[in-house]
């Protein structure tokens, strides 16, 4: 990683993505318009929002009937009971609640607020929300295969999301789905420059890349949903992003 | 952020840093050898390890006498009681313990393992450990002033550390000290591309930059302690990295 620049280039001009759209040709067209040719080792970071949209993960609150549990939790958290119903349906367990916040263990295993359900950058008004992709690692693998077939190179795909942290304000990007990008790496056995065994034994490369990629994507009107990452040695074997989830047995903060 | 590349370049060839060394000339010399000229908006990311070393934050375990509390906690966690003594002395409170792990609220306010005390990449054998810098934000401001005076440009300085996360494996880089780099940004009031108010209201730019910078620095023998970040709009006002710490009243996981 340390012999060349690591760079993040936002891709502009993608059209609004709708259910059923094939994302890979849209991204390849945007790359072409930007004069970029995919190369071995590239990583294409894509926000989960457009993956979810393409997979039809939009829900209309008007079509949701809240359960008794959702009504109860909505009263505590002052949230729309129909949104709470969707949050519960997407989750294994509620981890913490307070007014305006429901932190859950998502069905994918992530601990995050509101089950990752998003209302920003979704067409259709306040009634429309977006769930996370059904299986982000599978989506990443599909996209990787499509990009590699089109470009004839080995590369990685990183599907990003933004999450809060327990003790720090502000969200940061994380790897929600990965193909050809390393979610975590065990450095045990490696030595430092003085020959001592490393203390930091595991790092999280995909999350570290996602943090900068999501910063480059931005959040507001000028947001760009795709970032081309160069210098990150993408294109290795497929390890799912879920591999970075801390096993419940090692969780001190549940 | 989204109109140009964001890039991270590792700086090689810094000498081993010792107590009393003036870091700014060492970094400027390495930049010169790499043929790089500092420009407006640059951000210089520096690992806390070399800042700490230059500030004489090395401690010899042989000189530490553990307290009764340190002996007790060392028995529970199976750690060196003298190291535990240093961890306690650097901390406001112990947050969680288990064998091999002590998670504390550091005196700087961060929640992290072992008070950030490090044994990797420190000269002198197993007896020598490294504390975090005394005041990383002040160190960042001093370095910023030195770099700006030498280069005649406006730039930012980011002092990085690596920390674990509550629910995800592997460490990621964070901003331990900042000058001219935004620790967090409140986007409330901004609108998405469909004119709806943004849901993600706070982002953490300095942490997001630190994540990729630390990935580029690496952890092992070939580690580079300084990374030049371009495209991140450094050089604004000085907001301390401590601004990103979640206030205790909003902490659901203590």
Give an account of the 3D structure.
- 2 copies of one chain form a homodimer.
- Chain A has helices at residues 23-33, 48-54, 68-77, 81-89, 136-151, 205-217; strands at residues 6-11, 43-47, 58-60, 91-98, 101-106, 111-113, 128-130, 156-163, 172-179, 185-186, 202-203, 226-230.
- Chain A has 2 domains: 7-57 and 133-244, CofE-like (60s Ribosomal Protein L30, Chain: A), CATH 3.30.1330.100; 59-130, CofE-like domain (CofE-like fold, Alpha-Beta Complex).
- Chain A is built from 6 helices and 12 strands.
- In chain A, α1 crosses α5 and α3 crosses α4 (81-89).
- The model of chain A has no long low-confidence stretch (mean pLDDT 92).
- The radius of gyration of chain A is 19 Å and the shape is globular.
- Chain A has 254 residues and is an alpha+beta fold.
- At the A-B interface, β1, β9, β11 and α6 of A face β1, β9, β11 and α6 of B.
What's the layout of helices and strands?
Two copies of one chain form a homodimer.
Chain A: E1 6-11, H1 23-33, E2 43-47, H2 48-54, E3 58-60, H3 68-77, H4 81-89, E4 91-98, E5 101-106, E6 111-113, E7 128-130, H5 136-151, E8 156-163, E9 172-179, E10 185-186, E11 202-203, H6 205-217, E12 226-230
Parallel strand pairs in A: 2-8
Antiparallel strand pairs in A: 1-12, 2-12, 3-7, 4-5, 5-6, 8-9, 10-11
Helix pairs in contact in A: 1-5, 3-4
